[in-house]
Amino acid sequence: MSSQLKDFSLARLRDDFALRGIARYRADQVAGWLYQHGVEDPMAMTNLDLPLRERLASEWQSRALDVDRVQESSDGTRKLVLRTHDGAVLEAVLIPEERRNTLCISTQVGCPLACSFCATGALGFTRNLTTAEIVDQVCRAREVIDAAPALAGEEERLSNIVFMGMGEPLLNLPNVLESIRILTDPKAFGMAPRRITVSTAGVVPKIRPLLEVGPINLAVSLHAVRDEVRDVLVPINQKFPLQVLLDTLRNEELISRRRPVFFEYTLMKGVNDSLEDARLLPELLRGIPSKLNVIPMNPHPDAPYEAPDRDVIDRFTAALHEGGLRVTLRRNRGADIDAACGQLAAREVRSERAKGS
Ligand code: SAH
Hints:
The protein has helices spanning 10-19, 25-36, 50-59, 131-147, 173-184, 207-211, 227-233, 242-250, 275-285, 310-322, 346-356, and strands at 3-4, 60-61, 65-72, 78-84, 89-96, 101-104, 108-110, 125-128, 160-163, 196-200, 217-221, 261-267, 290-296, 327-329. By secondary structure, it is of the alpha/beta class. Helix 1 crosses helix 2 (25-36), helix 4 packs across helix 5 (173-184) and helix 9 (275-285) runs parallel beside helix 10.
């Protein structure tokens, strides 16, 4: 198969071009077209000479994903249903807010971690996404934004990227790192690293290598204060229990008050929403510069959990405040199109399977 231009960070693309006898600076020009101008057809890259354009067109691919459809929620959230060349379906979610426009992207088709409350986890694991497939989610999202800008008054550029879609980013680390290099390279997307957040369920040995790629944000899916509960919700806890995870973060010198950990806590009725849990949490996180995001469970047919009542949620977050934690409550965006946290892709893949069987 031909090579894929978007699989390479600029440094590697220059090297690869050099090996093929193409001048290194040509890689910079190509990256400018792909990521700054959104031009994928080599024949349209007019500052390249014609033989090079023809060579790129015949030896390389430049597009990794096609848009199956775009669904828009009543709250303005847009879900992109995307398809790879081998027919895998994945999703990315555009979340417009007042001062930012966040894109939530996927790193795997399905997920091997099987967290009991997550719709993606219920799918099982198909494969890792390639670097180009990760990066192309951003390219496709920019086209969607350009074709129909967000509601008046909302930010129109893509301002933030969160690796919180389908899959576990730290189990696809090389491709995640390469895509971050492309996103942050001033000659490619040129995004500020602090506008990128990568979320993990707690693949402890890969946390340090992730933090070393640059000053991006780390998010950690916590969801429980006791191993008995977390073992069930986030089964990778059986391999890397709470104390191991939290001690690693506590001792990690790349984490600081300026670069805190963003903990996510999906709140489930009767499972992890007690006041005692709320009192234990600040204790547990002591010594880790952190912010905590409370996400009321988004229910879906593959999990037996539901969100607590509003007053329980309020009491829980109030108790965290009192314990000295910096807490935010995440609004459920896009739930009417199955685009909210933990709802991604189940429907599509299920209907694909139904068709195949
Ligand atoms: N595997 C990574 C990346 C996925 S992030 C991780 O676990 O961090 C997806 C986020 O959505 C996680 O914080 C996850 O806990 C949360 N989530 C998953 N299912 C959910 C659900 N049904 N309701 C609310 N949040 C959910």
